[in-house]
Inverse folding.
């Protein structure tokens, strides 16, 4: 099952309470130890996942709380961090005041970001010893861990995207040019979820192609399968627009081209409120006149060619079934892909952090201000069911929390 959007609730572990105790031993200060820090919640990009289905039926996750301090100067154990594995290409948003705020975009395998920080352990009465008060009775409770309502959206990492009407031949084309084997049939909306394929042109030239479900007029308003799958094309650098030029569709190819073009311009990702991302209609495009093997009215192809010329885009006539013209198309797509300006967002990690009380979330940075105490590295590789991993913190030094990092 392909799931590309889920809502989950994450809760970091609470800090343990400081202990009030008196250790009576020669040459030892009298006082109790601190509580342990609560575990934090991390998202980790795993190359072994390609869907968010693990989180569809398990929407709540809680990290381990820190243990309380105890007698004999025993500091509470830190809670285990909770690591939630997600596919590369996952974007994490937080629900805030009926709006979505982007926290992090995980595009590289192994990328790890914090989304909920564990509570700090409370200080025991030993921390309050002074020259005038050698046996204080003051302690601190542990601070609560952060809680966040998150939305995870998966946006496929692809270089080239295939768009067009249903039954325009997108699945047939990706099956011919790659090892992908999507469902192919002679009825609309055969493709219900995106498909990925790798095109190998030789000479160390390759790119990833994404095939998304077909678009119809009004898709941005929810008609057909809607346009939500277009979010998977945001990371692409080139769009290949397939148009069925055969008379079997019963539609005008020029009108089909204009309809899809309008739908691309109308698409708006609700999570992209910052206006940074490039509009799909502004991406470099290659127009493909498909099914020329079934072309019985040459005028349909010529009218589409003239329209593409007026729009300033390349047009290639091919047959996905027989392979006619496919080699030339791939070379043209590679040229546009190679010449596209700048590096694609899919090739460089993005750490976009939303500011929240208690410090930054979405980056591996420690909070500033009141929460100044340094933290030891946390690790662990123990896997739990559902793609969840946890590890235990290992503080170093006798007074590891006494100095800021």
């Amino acid at each position: 099952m392909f799931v590309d959007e889920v809502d989950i609730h994450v809760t970091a572990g609470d800090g343990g309470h400081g202990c009030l105790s008196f250790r009576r031993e020669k040459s030892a200060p009298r006082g109790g130890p601190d509580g342990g820090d609560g575990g934090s919640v991390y998202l980790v990009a795993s190359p072994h996942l390609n869907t968010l289905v693990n989180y569809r039926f398990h929407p709540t996750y809680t990290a381990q709380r820190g243990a309380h301090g105890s007698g004999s100067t025993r500091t509470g154990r830190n809670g285990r961090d909770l690591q939630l594995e997600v596919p590369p290409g996952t974007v994490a948003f937080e629900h805030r005041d009926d709006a979505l705020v982007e926290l992090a975009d995980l595009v590289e395998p192994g990328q790890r970001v914090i989304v909920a920080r564990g509570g700090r352990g409370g200080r025991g009465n030993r921390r309050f010893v002074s020259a005038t008060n050698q046996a204080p009775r003051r302690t601190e409770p542990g601070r609560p861990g952060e809680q966040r309502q998150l939305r995870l959206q998966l946006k496929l990492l692809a270089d080239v995207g295939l768009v067009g009407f249903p039954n325009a031949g997108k699945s047939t084309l990706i099956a011919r040019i790659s090892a992908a084997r999507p469902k192919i049939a002679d009825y609309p909306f055969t493709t219900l979820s995106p498909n990925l394929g790798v095109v190998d042109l030789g000479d160390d030239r390759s790119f990833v192609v994404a095939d998304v479900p077909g678009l119809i007029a009004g898709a941005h308003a929810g008609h057909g399968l809607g346009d939500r799958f277009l979010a998977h094309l945001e990371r692409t650098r080139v769009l290949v627009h397939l148009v069925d030029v055969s008379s079997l569709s019963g539609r005008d190819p020029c009108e089909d081209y204009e309809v899809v073009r309008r739908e691309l311009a109308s698409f708006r990702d609700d999570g992209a409120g910052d206006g940074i991302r490039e509009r799909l209609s502004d991406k470099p495009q290659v127009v493909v006149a498909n099914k020329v093997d079934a072309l019985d009215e040459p005028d349909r192809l010529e009218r589409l060619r003239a329209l593409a010329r007026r729009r300033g885009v390349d047009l290639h006539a091919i047959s996905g079934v027989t392979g006619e013209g496919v080699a030339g198309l791939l070379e043209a797509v590679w040229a546009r892909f190679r010449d596209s300006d700048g590096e694609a967002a899919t090739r460089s990690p993005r750490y976009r952090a939303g500011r929240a009380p208690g410090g930054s979330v979405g980056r591996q940075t420690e909070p500033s201000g009141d929460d100044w105490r340094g933290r030891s590295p946390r690790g662990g590789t123990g896997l739990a069911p559902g793609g969840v991993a946890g590890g235990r913190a290992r503080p170093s030094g006798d007074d590891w929390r006494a100095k800021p990092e």
Notes: The longest helix spans residues 253-266. The longest strand covers residues 99-106.
